[in-house]
Amino acid sequence: MHPDPRCSTDLGARRPRRGVPRILSALAFGLAGLTGGGCNIAAPVLFIIEGPPKKVAAHTLDPKAATVVLVDDPANRLPSRSLRSDIAQQAERVLLDEDVLVDIIDARDAMRVTAGDRYGKLTSISEVGAAVGASIVIYVRIEAFQVSADGVSYSPLIGANVKVIDVATQERVWPEEYDGAELRVQMREPPGEAPKSLAERAEINRKMAQELGLAVAQLFYEHDIRRSAGKPKAR
Q1: Does the global pTM surpass 0.85?
Q2: 12 or 122, which is more confident?
């Protein structure tokens, strides 16, 4: 799964949990013949070929645990409710494609449970999980959405807080030390003019949402650092 070429993530960690393993894939010795004064000198040459650096998983999920991705936007920061589905469904696809999970519950079921929160009592994360038959909830709370960093140029950004909740105990299992891990996704291209049509803006917003979904999924499996869409900033 390749991140959208126009998107990037900014990530810093107070307590980084990452590794850059080196893979020794080939070791060869060549002989260089040097002729001089009637002597042949054989000189060894060492070649080391390394694989791409890897980013380790920030947390390991139980692949057999019934899991749901719940994207919450309590402050209505996203311009469209459908972007919540885009984020969650992208995370679901990647988690399944990368064999991180074998049992994942449709995020739309969780969204239906929370649909009534606008009219009264808020449903807790564990209650949503129990209602859809999940034992683990990957909770993604939208923290920011902006179309411009300076108020002039067009440079959209989405920020979110991510944590993993055990439904049975109603406790956070990751991150252990902090309330959540922050992710931020923004345009890779230099800031430019805003799209000229609503359709163009909606398409960019959708791609940004999908990139955030990828970043969420990548928290839970080792992947090529060059394809990374994000890493946690615990707080």
Answers
A1: no
A2: 122
